[in-house]
Amino acid sequence: GTDCNVALELNTEEGEHLENVEIDILDPQGRKITKTRTGNRGRCTFLLNNVGTQEEYKAVFQYKGYDYEVKLPEVEEEGIALQVRQDTLLRIELQRSEGLTDFPEGLALQVMAQGVPQTLQHIDFGDKRKTNVTIPLNELRTGVNQITVFDGKGQIYADRLCFVNRHDYDSAKIDIHGIEPQYEPFAPVTLNLKLQDIQDTATSVSLAVRDRAMEEQTYDNGTMLTEMMLASEIKGFVENPGYYFEADDSMHRRDLDLLLMVQGWRRYEWKEMAGIEAF
């Protein structure tokens, strides 16, 4: 069996995110093997250990007094499980399924960002089922990075998106002083602006003034950073994209990774892509 990290998003038919819902994961015999709880926007992950190819798993939970049961996707007969962690390095753990023992065409791991290859490394499991790859973050671009494991025929064994933030697109942080609680109509406004970090190179800024009472809340609060570096790289609408960059802490990084695991999932017809079968 293979250890698999699974991500999900739980919503109602109307699209309401179901947060703080406990979900039990059952094996084919109906035994609870693990549990998880939905968090931000109804997303969560759980780890399945020693997954067998013929096994079928189910997720069960309660909502508003009713019991629900959802069959999980079928387990692939063979493949490579891929898990990612980040600190100063991008740490990638690969685990092959038991029946996958020979790669006559060779095996490689490639990281791409915005359609541009960042690194390509040969993978050799030897006689082991697990191997690890580490990549310095300074070798990768800020934005969504696509990790792909494939062989010389073009068969894709694993694919995963992750977000790398080297902070080279961070805006200068500015302290603003002199704002009064209330102003008379047409009264002059004097503000004092000061860079928090004297090393910042900002020499000019843009200023917009609006009436807070007329402000409308919207789910689409994207900026050029969120649109170019995030939303354009994954499927579907990214709700409240500014949230993922309002702080660079463990909670926001985890929620961003969950977004990429859910909306960044994809499946390939690799034989068509490699020209083995007609498109």
UniProtKB/TrEMBL annotation:
Domain of life: Bacteria
Protein name according to UniProt: Uncharacterized protein
Source organism: Paraprevotella clara YIT 11840
